[in-house]
Amino acid sequence: MSTIVKRLRPVISIVIPTFNRSEKLKRALESIVAQTFSNWEVVIVDNHSTDDTNNMLKEFKEYPIRIYKIRNNGIIAASRNLGIRHSIGKWIAFLDSDDWWHINKLETVVDNFSSKCDFFYHDLQIIKNQVRASLYRKKINSNQVKIPVYDNLIKYGNVIANSSVVVRRSLILKIGGLSENPKLVASEDYDCWLRLSKISDSFIHIPEILGFYEINKTNTSSANLSLISLVYINALHVNPFILKNGIESPVWWQYNYARALYQTNKIEKAKKILQKLTYRNLSWNMRVKVLFMLFTSKVK
Q1: CA-based nearest residue to 153, from 201, 116, 206, 117
Q2: H-helix or E-strand containing 67?
Q3: pTM exceeding 0.85
Protein backbone atom coordinates (compact mmCIF):
# COMPACT_ATOMS: atom_id res chain seq x y z
CA MET A 1 0.00 0.00 0.00
CA SER A 2 1.55 3.27 -1.08
CA THR A 3 1.62 6.29 1.19
CA ILE A 4 1.10 9.77 -0.23
CA VAL A 5 3.19 12.33 1.63
CA LYS A 6 1.65 15.77 1.55
CA ARG A 7 4.02 18.68 1.27
CA LEU A 8 3.76 20.91 4.34
CA ARG A 9 2.76 24.41 3.32
CA PRO A 10 5.51 26.79 4.44
CA VAL A 11 4.62 29.70 6.67
CA ILE A 12 7.05 32.04 4.91
CA SER A 13 8.13 32.22 1.26
CA ILE A 14 11.45 34.01 0.82
CA VAL A 15 11.70 35.74 -2.57
CA ILE A 16 15.24 36.40 -3.86
CA PRO A 17 15.93 38.00 -7.26
CA THR A 18 19.49 37.50 -8.48
CA PHE A 19 21.88 38.00 -11.37
CA ASN A 20 25.55 36.97 -11.45
CA ARG A 21 26.01 37.02 -7.67
CA SER A 22 26.88 33.40 -7.02
CA GLU A 23 29.07 33.91 -3.94
CA LYS A 24 26.81 36.51 -2.36
CA LEU A 25 23.70 34.48 -3.10
CA LYS A 26 25.40 31.53 -1.41
CA ARG A 27 25.97 33.68 1.69
CA ALA A 28 22.31 34.73 1.68
CA LEU A 29 21.16 31.10 1.37
CA GLU A 30 23.52 29.98 4.14
CA SER A 31 21.92 32.55 6.43
CA ILE A 32 18.49 31.10 5.58
CA VAL A 33 19.29 27.42 6.07
CA ALA A 34 20.84 28.34 9.44
CA GLN A 35 17.59 29.94 10.65
CA THR A 36 16.20 28.81 14.00
CA PHE A 37 12.73 28.82 12.37
CA SER A 38 12.53 26.13 9.70
CA ASN A 39 9.07 26.26 8.10
CA TRP A 40 10.05 28.27 5.05
CA GLU A 41 10.66 27.96 1.32
CA VAL A 42 12.93 29.97 -0.95
CA VAL A 43 11.88 31.15 -4.40
CA ILE A 44 14.91 32.32 -6.39
CA VAL A 45 14.28 34.26 -9.57
CA ASP A 46 17.42 34.29 -11.68
CA ASN A 47 17.85 36.76 -14.54
CA HIS A 48 19.77 34.11 -16.53
CA SER A 49 23.06 34.41 -14.64
CA THR A 50 26.20 33.54 -16.59
CA ASP A 51 28.43 32.95 -13.56
CA ASP A 52 28.57 29.90 -11.26
CA THR A 53 25.04 30.38 -9.87
CA ASN A 54 23.58 27.15 -11.30
CA ASN A 55 26.40 24.96 -9.95
CA MET A 56 26.40 26.72 -6.59
CA LEU A 57 22.67 26.09 -6.13
CA LYS A 58 23.28 22.33 -6.36
CA GLU A 59 24.82 22.59 -2.89
CA PHE A 60 21.36 23.43 -1.53
CA LYS A 61 19.33 20.75 -3.34
CA GLU A 62 18.19 19.14 -0.06
CA TYR A 63 16.40 22.33 0.99
CA PRO A 64 12.98 23.66 -0.11
CA ILE A 65 14.44 25.99 -2.71
CA ARG A 66 12.92 26.51 -6.15
CA ILE A 67 14.54 28.40 -9.02
CA TYR A 68 12.79 30.25 -11.84
CA LYS A 69 14.36 32.03 -14.79
CA ILE A 70 13.35 35.41 -16.17
CA ARG A 71 14.49 38.09 -18.59
CA ASN A 72 13.57 41.14 -16.54
CA ASN A 73 15.19 43.81 -18.74
CA GLY A 74 16.48 45.65 -15.69
CA ILE A 75 13.10 45.67 -13.91
CA ILE A 76 13.84 43.84 -10.65
CA ALA A 77 10.18 44.26 -9.65
CA ALA A 78 9.33 41.79 -12.43
CA SER A 79 11.58 39.20 -10.77
CA ARG A 80 10.02 39.79 -7.36
CA ASN A 81 6.51 39.57 -8.79
CA LEU A 82 7.32 36.25 -10.47
CA GLY A 83 8.63 34.97 -7.15
CA ILE A 84 5.49 36.12 -5.34
CA ARG A 85 3.23 34.40 -7.89
CA HIS A 86 5.10 31.10 -7.48
CA SER A 87 5.25 31.28 -3.69
CA ILE A 88 2.89 29.23 -1.53
CA GLY A 89 3.56 30.64 1.95
CA LYS A 90 1.08 32.77 3.85
CA TRP A 91 3.78 35.40 4.26
CA ILE A 92 6.35 36.82 1.82
CA ALA A 93 9.83 37.76 3.00
CA PHE A 94 12.02 39.82 0.68
CA LEU A 95 15.78 39.31 0.59
CA ASP A 96 18.22 40.84 -1.89
CA SER A 97 20.80 38.32 -3.04
CA ASP A 98 23.70 40.34 -1.62
CA ASP A 99 22.12 40.86 1.80
CA TRP A 100 21.77 38.25 4.55
CA TRP A 101 20.05 37.63 7.90
CA HIS A 102 20.80 36.81 11.51
CA ILE A 103 19.94 33.20 12.32
CA ASN A 104 17.00 34.24 14.49
CA LYS A 105 15.42 36.69 12.01
CA LEU A 106 12.48 34.50 10.99
CA GLU A 107 11.83 33.20 14.51
CA THR A 108 11.75 36.76 15.85
CA VAL A 109 9.27 37.87 13.19
CA VAL A 110 7.06 34.80 13.68
CA ASP A 111 7.02 35.43 17.43
CA ASN A 112 5.42 38.80 16.64
CA PHE A 113 2.72 37.38 14.36
CA SER A 114 -0.88 38.12 15.19
CA SER A 115 -4.10 38.10 13.21
CA LYS A 116 -4.10 41.91 13.12
CA CYS A 117 -0.58 42.37 11.77
CA ASP A 118 0.06 42.62 8.04
CA PHE A 119 3.57 43.97 7.58
CA PHE A 120 6.79 43.59 9.57
CA TYR A 121 10.18 45.23 9.15
CA HIS A 122 13.32 45.58 11.26
CA ASP A 123 16.72 47.24 11.44
CA LEU A 124 19.66 46.17 9.29
CA GLN A 125 23.36 46.54 10.01
CA ILE A 126 25.30 48.19 7.21
CA ILE A 127 28.37 46.37 5.95
CA LYS A 128 30.84 48.53 4.06
CA ASN A 129 33.69 47.42 1.79
CA GLN A 130 33.60 43.86 3.14
CA VAL A 131 34.46 45.04 6.68
CA ARG A 132 33.49 42.43 9.26
CA ALA A 133 30.11 43.03 10.89
CA SER A 134 31.70 43.19 14.34
CA LEU A 135 33.87 46.13 13.23
CA TYR A 136 31.28 48.30 11.48
CA ARG A 137 28.37 49.48 13.60
CA LYS A 138 26.33 51.71 11.31
CA LYS A 139 22.75 50.63 10.72
CA ILE A 140 19.77 51.51 8.58
CA ASN A 141 17.71 53.54 11.00
CA SER A 142 14.17 52.28 10.83
CA ASN A 143 11.46 53.38 13.23
CA GLN A 144 7.83 52.64 13.94
CA VAL A 145 5.72 54.41 11.33
CA LYS A 146 2.74 56.19 12.85
CA ILE A 147 -0.89 55.87 11.78
CA PRO A 148 -2.00 56.76 9.18
CA VAL A 149 1.02 54.99 7.73
CA TYR A 150 0.57 56.46 4.24
CA ASP A 151 0.76 60.00 5.59
CA ASN A 152 3.80 59.14 7.71
CA LEU A 153 5.67 57.59 4.78
CA ILE A 154 4.96 60.66 2.64
CA LYS A 155 6.02 63.17 5.28
CA TYR A 156 9.19 61.41 6.41
CA GLY A 157 10.18 59.20 3.48
CA ASN A 158 11.01 55.52 3.23
CA VAL A 159 12.31 54.11 6.53
CA ILE A 160 11.72 50.48 5.48
CA ALA A 161 14.57 48.42 4.03
CA ASN A 162 13.51 45.85 1.44
CA SER A 163 15.51 42.95 2.92
CA SER A 164 13.81 43.43 6.29
CA VAL A 165 10.22 43.11 5.09
CA VAL A 166 7.82 40.26 5.83
CA VAL A 167 4.31 40.92 4.46
CA ARG A 168 1.09 38.97 4.06
CA ARG A 169 1.04 37.40 0.60
CA SER A 170 -2.70 38.07 0.25
CA LEU A 171 -2.12 41.77 0.89
CA ILE A 172 0.62 42.22 -1.68
CA LEU A 173 -1.43 40.27 -4.24
CA LYS A 174 -4.35 42.59 -3.51
CA ILE A 175 -2.36 45.60 -4.76
CA GLY A 176 -1.10 43.70 -7.79
CA GLY A 177 2.46 43.27 -6.52
CA LEU A 178 5.26 45.72 -7.16
CA SER A 179 5.00 48.22 -9.98
CA GLU A 180 7.04 47.25 -13.05
CA ASN A 181 7.00 50.80 -14.41
CA PRO A 182 10.59 51.61 -15.57
CA LYS A 183 10.25 55.08 -14.03
CA LEU A 184 10.13 53.48 -10.59
CA VAL A 185 13.19 51.25 -10.93
CA ALA A 186 15.02 52.94 -8.03
CA SER A 187 11.90 53.37 -5.86
CA GLU A 188 9.59 50.44 -6.58
CA ASP A 189 9.84 49.20 -2.98
CA TYR A 190 8.83 52.59 -1.54
CA ASP A 191 5.93 52.81 -3.98
CA CYS A 192 4.87 49.32 -2.90
CA TRP A 193 4.89 50.25 0.82
CA LEU A 194 2.84 53.36 0.02
CA ARG A 195 0.22 51.40 -1.90
CA LEU A 196 0.08 48.73 0.83
CA SER A 197 -0.42 51.45 3.45
CA LYS A 198 -3.53 52.62 1.62
CA ILE A 199 -5.26 49.35 2.54
CA SER A 200 -3.61 48.55 5.88
CA ASP A 201 -2.14 50.52 8.77
CA SER A 202 -0.83 47.39 10.46
CA PHE A 203 2.90 48.02 9.96
CA ILE A 204 5.04 46.70 12.82
CA HIS A 205 8.66 47.71 13.37
CA ILE A 206 10.81 45.20 15.26
CA PRO A 207 13.56 47.33 16.89
CA GLU A 208 16.34 44.79 16.44
CA ILE A 209 19.16 44.36 13.94
CA LEU A 210 18.14 41.10 12.28
CA GLY A 211 20.12 41.31 9.06
CA PHE A 212 22.95 42.84 7.08
CA TYR A 213 22.88 45.28 4.17
CA GLU A 214 25.97 45.58 1.98
CA ILE A 215 26.53 49.06 0.58
CA ASN A 216 29.46 48.30 -1.72
CA LYS A 217 27.17 46.31 -3.98
CA THR A 218 26.26 47.09 -7.57
CA ASN A 219 22.68 48.30 -7.35
CA THR A 220 20.08 50.00 -9.52
CA SER A 221 20.10 53.32 -7.66
CA SER A 222 22.27 55.27 -10.08
CA ALA A 223 21.96 59.05 -10.12
CA ASN A 224 19.85 59.15 -13.31
CA LEU A 225 17.50 56.42 -12.11
CA SER A 226 17.18 58.12 -8.73
CA LEU A 227 16.28 61.41 -10.37
CA ILE A 228 13.68 59.80 -12.64
CA SER A 229 12.12 57.80 -9.81
CA LEU A 230 12.02 60.78 -7.44
CA VAL A 231 10.16 62.85 -10.02
CA TYR A 232 7.73 60.00 -10.63
CA ILE A 233 7.20 59.31 -6.91
CA ASN A 234 6.45 63.00 -6.54
CA ALA A 235 3.85 62.88 -9.31
CA LEU A 236 2.22 59.67 -8.00
CA HIS A 237 2.22 60.26 -4.26
CA VAL A 238 4.00 63.28 -2.81
CA ASN A 239 2.57 66.18 -4.84
CA PRO A 240 -1.09 65.02 -4.62
CA PHE A 241 -0.64 64.67 -0.84
CA ILE A 242 0.86 68.13 -0.30
CA LEU A 243 -1.78 69.77 -2.53
CA LYS A 244 -4.58 67.99 -0.66
CA ASN A 245 -3.21 68.98 2.74
CA GLY A 246 -1.87 72.42 1.87
CA ILE A 247 1.62 71.75 3.20
CA GLU A 248 5.18 72.25 1.98
CA SER A 249 6.99 69.56 0.06
CA PRO A 250 8.66 67.17 2.56
CA VAL A 251 12.24 67.95 3.53
CA TRP A 252 13.42 64.41 2.72
CA TRP A 253 12.11 64.69 -0.85
CA GLN A 254 13.59 68.14 -1.45
CA TYR A 255 16.98 67.02 -0.15
CA ASN A 256 17.06 63.79 -2.17
CA TYR A 257 15.86 65.61 -5.28
CA ALA A 258 18.64 68.19 -4.87
CA ARG A 259 21.15 65.37 -4.27
CA ALA A 260 20.07 63.58 -7.46
CA LEU A 261 20.29 66.85 -9.41
CA TYR A 262 23.75 67.45 -7.99
CA GLN A 263 24.91 63.95 -8.96
CA THR A 264 23.68 64.48 -12.51
CA ASN A 265 25.59 67.79 -12.80
CA LYS A 266 22.51 70.00 -12.52
CA ILE A 267 24.38 72.03 -9.92
CA GLU A 268 22.60 75.39 -10.13
CA LYS A 269 19.14 73.85 -9.85
CA ALA A 270 20.30 71.77 -6.90
CA LYS A 271 21.75 74.84 -5.15
CA LYS A 272 18.46 76.74 -5.40
CA ILE A 273 16.60 73.90 -3.70
CA LEU A 274 19.28 73.54 -1.01
CA GLN A 275 19.30 77.29 -0.30
CA LYS A 276 15.52 77.25 0.20
CA LEU A 277 15.91 74.27 2.52
CA THR A 278 18.19 76.26 4.85
CA TYR A 279 15.14 78.36 5.80
CA ARG A 280 13.13 75.28 6.78
CA ASN A 281 12.92 73.85 10.28
CA LEU A 282 15.55 71.14 9.80
CA SER A 283 16.90 68.53 12.16
CA TRP A 284 20.55 69.03 13.13
CA ASN A 285 21.58 66.04 10.99
CA MET A 286 19.69 67.27 7.92
CA ARG A 287 21.01 70.82 8.29
CA VAL A 288 24.58 69.47 8.31
CA LYS A 289 23.92 67.45 5.14
CA VAL A 290 22.31 70.40 3.34
CA LEU A 291 25.10 72.80 4.27
CA PHE A 292 27.77 70.28 3.33
CA MET A 293 26.26 69.78 -0.13
CA LEU A 294 25.95 73.53 -0.60
CA PHE A 295 29.59 74.03 0.39
CA THR A 296 30.72 71.23 -1.94
CA SER A 297 28.80 72.69 -4.88
CA LYS A 298 30.40 76.12 -4.30
CA VAL A 299 33.87 74.56 -4.20
CA LYS A 300 33.23 72.96 -7.58
Answers
A1: 201
A2: strand 65-69
A3: yes
